[in-house]
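Whether sequence alone determines local backbone shape is best considered at the level of individual chains. Part of our work consisted of pairing the sequence of a single chain with a tokenised description of its backbone. This step matters because it turns folding into a mapping between discrete strings. For completeness, the protein is quoted in full, as a sequence line and a line of structure tokens:

_____
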Amino acid sequence: MGARDARETLALRGIVLAFGGVRAIDGVDLDVRQGQVHGLIGPNGSGKTTTLNVISGYYKPEAGSMTIGGTPLPSGIPEGRAARGIARTYQTPRLIGEASVLQNVMIGASISGTATFVESLLSLPRHIADERRMKTQARLALQAVGLAGLADVRADRLQHSELRFMEIARALMLKPGFLLLDEPAAGLSVEEIKRLGALIKAVSRQGTGVLLVEHHADLIFDICDQVTVLNLGKVLAAGTPAEIRVHKEVVSAYLGG
């Protein structure tokens, strides 16, 4: 991934989404800038993953707008997100168990192939070239996340922590403008969390905007440039990690002070 010259912002304004009359998101504003890590934290049920699902197009909000670089991002259309440069991981890693780690990662680049359906069906030269290029990119992505030695292992043989990193490698295959990470540190050891933090910072330095939903407060405060705190679907606070650490309402509602 090359560093981006004209960096854009993924912006949410006034997002509202209710389930059964209960507002899961209630007027959320959020700015995720390319080249930065933006933490999204809050108690369970505060609307963090729901916000990711709105950005991902899985939920269509009742009010509000989303834009990338000022261009509208249509809601409720998940299949259009990859083309807009949005990739994500999930709380529960998604994999094709009988396929190799390399094959699972290659799926992340399927949108970038140049061969037509018929060329792929008949294994014509352009399809073969696509597959060769994807394999090369997938091996580089696995190297970046520390899984190069497991490329040919069946994905269902991986440990939980390895699946977390495999998902990130697959997301990186898109060369995303924005990467959404949903609790990637869950179940990781202290050393693995340090490795994850270094990886996320490296991705952001290449120009990708990272939106990180995470319960590990130390990771958030160590690597994030900006932090937004949600509580009961509303933005409780937003600012730098230093500002959030001393915000009285945040300390009371979330940090346990």
Residues 1-83+179-256 form a domain with the Rossmann fold fold (CATH 3.40.50.300). The CA atoms of residues 181 and 213 lie 6 Å apart. The chain has nine helices and ten strands.
